[in-house]
Automatic annotation (TrEMBL):
Signal sequence annotation: none
Key word Iron-sulfur present: no
Species per Swiss-Prot/TrEMBL record: Desulforamulus ferrireducens
The encoding gene: hemA
EC number(s) on file: 1.2.1.70
Protein name: Glutamyl-tRNA reductase
Pathway assignment: Porphyrin-containing compound metabolism; protoporphyrin-IX biosynthesis; 5-aminolevulinate from L-glutamyl-tRNA(Glu): step 1/2
Amino acid sequence: MLIAVIGVNHRTAPLEVREKLAFPEWGTTEWLNKLLAYPGIDGCALISTCNRTEIYIAPVELDTGMNSVWSFLSEKSGLDISEIKNYTFCHTLYDAIRHLFRVVSGLDSMILGETQILGQVKKAYEMALEAKSTNVVLNTLFQQAITTGKRVRTETGIDQNPVSIPYAAVELAKQSLGSLDGRSVLVVGAGEMSELTVVNLVANGVSSVIVSNRSYDRAVQLAEKFEGKAVKFDSLFQYMSQADIVISSTAAQHYVIKPQDIEQVMSARNGRPIMMIDIAVPRDIDPQVRNIPGISLFDVDHLQNVVDANLAERRQAAVRAEGIIEEELNEFMRWLSTRFVVPTITALKKMGEEIKQRELSRAFNRLGDLSEREKKIIGSLANSIVNQLLHNPVVNLKQYALTPEGHLYTKITQNIFNLEVKGQQGKAKGLPPEKRKKFAACSGSHVNWEHTTNL
């Protein structure tokens, strides 16, 4: 079984593209079921955060599976497949596994070692389980990835110095406004990111917290934690005129704060400035708002340069984390390779046994009456010949199974011996040179195709 990931993140695409490819949490089950219905998808899981969208699949056939994902993303976003390919990355097997382990460990985040991603990956896996879109391979992959993320944090302390997205937002406010003592903040949205941001704001001196959310009850719950005030969403702009800082992080798929709204707010404030930080993807605040006098508007792409103080220690921890990831990766590959190669070895031995029995039956029929001793000698001879012929292919296949190219050797063995392996498409299809290049380019793995002649 192959593993592949196609995704987009803060390095591969600008915010306006990422927000079109983002998936709201409330619709994840429906989208996973849609993807599972596409050709070539045996299992799938979806990670969608403020800075990344990644789709992990267990494809029955690599090209078909990846083309299905691109078609799926095109259906969701309305973008052409060619445009999506320009902004997405793709990894297969060894590199896909390493990528997930690095993501869950915080090594692929905008802010190195961020804490939230571990919980986000865990939540994504739980939602895939609820949607029943995973299979044994993806289940084991995500379970080991989550274990790896926990181990990295425990053994390296990479998340000890806080530089998460909410922390970065607070640092940005401090850089812009100076001391936050006595300042007031209006938080739009009452989710986890909003709550974490308020925690940091209050810890840094903010004295007045106002929370507005479409679900008023949720706004009340969050406001009570900080002795703040909850306001209904339709009163949002009335209370915004009282705030020095606006933090917006909702799950809306459209702008909830528009220029005409802010112009009225600024009129009520007599021009007193407001700092606005939009940490939602898709964005909550229309970018045109930053053109209004007195408004300083920042979005998630501005957070990249906010926190530097703790990154030196995190980089040192990241080096140790890479070693842990390599250990966990090798362990998973041993499991996956064994799972993939054992059915092929079983099928190979079954084929040898069937040939042996068939030819023995023919020989005994031709030879006529034979004593039991003679039959035993002939049977032993046939058994020895089959075992010796299959010995090297079996031993070599077990050894190759522990390399990054193990699944390729396994499929080639299936193809050479015309093996029918349950769950692996029966007879494996050979890969012509043009597909070999495409596979290697997409996976990024160091596949030496010349070595396949050693089989």
